[in-house]
């Protein structure tokens, strides 16, 4: 059962404690995966005065991170040798397994008691399984998926949907403060954080698909998309996703911030978990089919707003950024 989710930043008392335990000021942090969210978290940690070891397979990203004042490493084992706190920002559960337990994985060098924050969106059952392996290796774990987009990651204002033992939160307190505006403690066991993120991704994926449908209909009707966007983003039909992704569609800018393939994965988790529990998710299923179609048509690595191109093609219309 979930506890009442109040942001932890409002729980800290005047003595500097969380949950009754002393906050530990750990300053050596690793971030595995320097994609849009991991990059923002890593820079936010640097700005807060942490020593940050960033791990990414891309040499150019590691070089850019070094230019920002961080330390770039090609393998998790190298990045985690002295880290007291490790943020994991890779794409899916399989990648989490690999960067933690695979060859040159974090567990080869991590010291007992290191706090691992699992920020990857994955099925709750995967989060529980991975946490069990970490705890068996004498590590601490927080199920910590995040939301807010790359801009909030860069400004240290993401939302963290977290669950795990109080001692892990105490140890990671200052690092969590550095990357987030709100930290919800959803329980003492791993799993509830990933459950909440799953529901968030259901809404996010459906809202992106709805925004794409609305803008495609407007284009088919010959309406000026900038005007449509300007009116609707301040009207009752808007959503955060319409406000954010609608602008991408208007400008025809499909530079990936979050890709189509991310929502193939995330909505796949939603529909799979729903099937297991007997829940009916028709809107999530339809949105998944649109993202899957977009991916199959070669748009998987474009911004997730590119799902609008599939609807435009089916409608016989052209959106900005599409070839006529």
From TrEMBL:
Domain 3-hydroxyisobutyrate dehydrogenase-like NAD-binding: start-end pairs: 191-310
Assigned keywords, A-Z: Carbohydrate metabolism, NAD, NADP, Oxidoreductase
Domain of life: Bacteria
Name by which UniProt lists this protein: L-threonate dehydrogenase
GO biological process terms held by the UniProt record: organic acid catabolic process
Active site (UniProt): 197
Plastid as UniProt keyword: no
Signal peptide: none
Functional description taken from the UniProt entry: Catalyzes oxidation of L-threonate to 2-oxo-tetronate. Can use either NAD(+) or NADP(+) as cosubstrate, with a preference for NAD(+).
Organism: Endobacterium cereale
Residue ranges annotated for the 6-phosphogluconate dehydrogenase NADP-binding domain, each copy included: 28-187
Family to which this protein belongs: Belongs to the HIBADH-related family. L-threonate dehydrogenase subfamily.
Molecular functions (GO terms): NAD binding; NADP binding; oxidoreductase activity, acting on the CH-OH group of donors, NAD or NADP as acceptor
EC number: 1.1.1.411
Catalytic activity: L-threonate + NAD(+) = 2-dehydro-L-erythronate + NADH + H(+)
InterPro entries, per database record: 3-OH-isobutyrate_DH-rel_CS, 6-PGluconate_DH-like_C_sf, 6PGD_dom2, 6PGDH_NADP-bd, HIBADH-like_NADP-bd, HIBADH-related, LtnD, NAD(P)-bd_dom_sf
PANTHER family for this protein: 3-HYDROXYISOBUTYRATE DEHYDROGENASE-LIKE 1, MITOCHONDRIAL-RELATED, L-THREONATE DEHYDROGENASE
Enzyme class name: oxidoreductase
């Amino acid at each position: 059962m979930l506890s009442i989710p109040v942001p932890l930043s409002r729980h800290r008392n005047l003595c500097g404690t969380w949950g009754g335990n002393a906050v530990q000021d750990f300053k050596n942090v690793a971030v595995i995966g320097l994609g849009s969210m991991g990059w923002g978290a890593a820079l936010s940690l640097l700005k807060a005065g942490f020593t940050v070891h960033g791990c990414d397979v891309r040499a150019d990203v590691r070089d850019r991170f070094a230019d920002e004042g961080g330390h770039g490493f090609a393998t998790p084992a190298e990045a985690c040798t002295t880290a007291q706190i490790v943020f994991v920002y890779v794409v899916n559960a399989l990648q989490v397994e690999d960067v933690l337990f695979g060859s040159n994985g974090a567990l080869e060098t991590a010291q007992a008691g290191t706090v691992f924050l699992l920020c990857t969106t994955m099925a709750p059952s995967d989060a529980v399984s991975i946490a069990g392996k970490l705890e068996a290796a004498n590590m601490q774990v927080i199920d910590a998926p995040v939301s807010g987009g790359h801009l909030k990651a860069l400004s240290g204002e993401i939302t963290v949907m977290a669950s795990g033992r109080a001692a892990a939160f105490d140890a990671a307190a200052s690092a969590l403060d550095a990357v987030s505006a709100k930290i919800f403690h959803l329980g003492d066991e791993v799993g509830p954080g990933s459950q909440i993120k799953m529901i968030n991704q259901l809404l996010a994926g459906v809202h992106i698909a709805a925004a794409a449908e609305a803008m495609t209909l407007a284009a088919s009707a010959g309406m000026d998309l900038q005007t449509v966007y300007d009116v609707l983003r301040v009207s009752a039909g808007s959503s955060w996703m319409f406000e954010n992704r609608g602008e991408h569609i208007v400008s025809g800018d499909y530079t990936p911030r979050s890709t189509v393939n991310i929502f193939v994965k995330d909505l796949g988790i939603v529909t799979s978990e729903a099937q297991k529990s007997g829940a009916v998710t028709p809107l999530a299923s339809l949105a998944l089919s649109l993202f899957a179609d977009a991916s199959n048509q070669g748009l998987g690595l474009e911004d997730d707003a590119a799902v609008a191109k599939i609807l435009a093609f089916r409608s016989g219309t052209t959106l900005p950024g599409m070839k006529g």
